[in-house]
Amino acid sequence: MFRTVSKSVNRIDGYEKVTGKAVFGADLNFFGQLHAKTLYGNVPHAKIIQIDTRKAEALKGVISVITVKDIPGENIMFGRFPVLVSDEIR
To answer: Among candidates 81, 46, 51, 79, which has minimal Cα distance to 67?
Structure first.
């Protein structure tokens, strides 16, 4: 019934991981690849009056700035967590 519980299991990728030779998805780079940057609040709790994205949009290389207004439908992940903050930083 339990063939692997309480038994040693050979890790076929163990050597690559401990030597740093393993390649993960985050290690891959492709031509034209975009990178994202998340901006976190600098205070523990605050009400958001407005978000001005003009300075960020004017930076060289910026393709898009996304706020909660850009999310179609419900702004909820896993049934209870907001994807992007809308009215309060918590």
So the answer is: 51
Query: What pLDDT, in 10s, does the model give residues 68-82?
Result: 988 888 888 898 888
Which of 68, 74, 31 lies closest to 51 in space, CA to CA? 68
Residue extents of the structural domains in the chain = 34-90
Residues 15-46 pLDDT 10s: 999 999 999 998 999 999 998 988 888 898 99
Q: List, for residues 40-66, the tens digit of each pLDDT value.
A: 888 989 999 998 999 999 999 999 999
Alpha carbon distances (Å) from 71 to 2, 46, 67, 68: 45, 21, 7, 5
Q: Which burial class, exposed, middle or buried, applies to 51 when counting CB atoms under 10 A from its CB (0-12, 13-18, 19+)?
A: middle
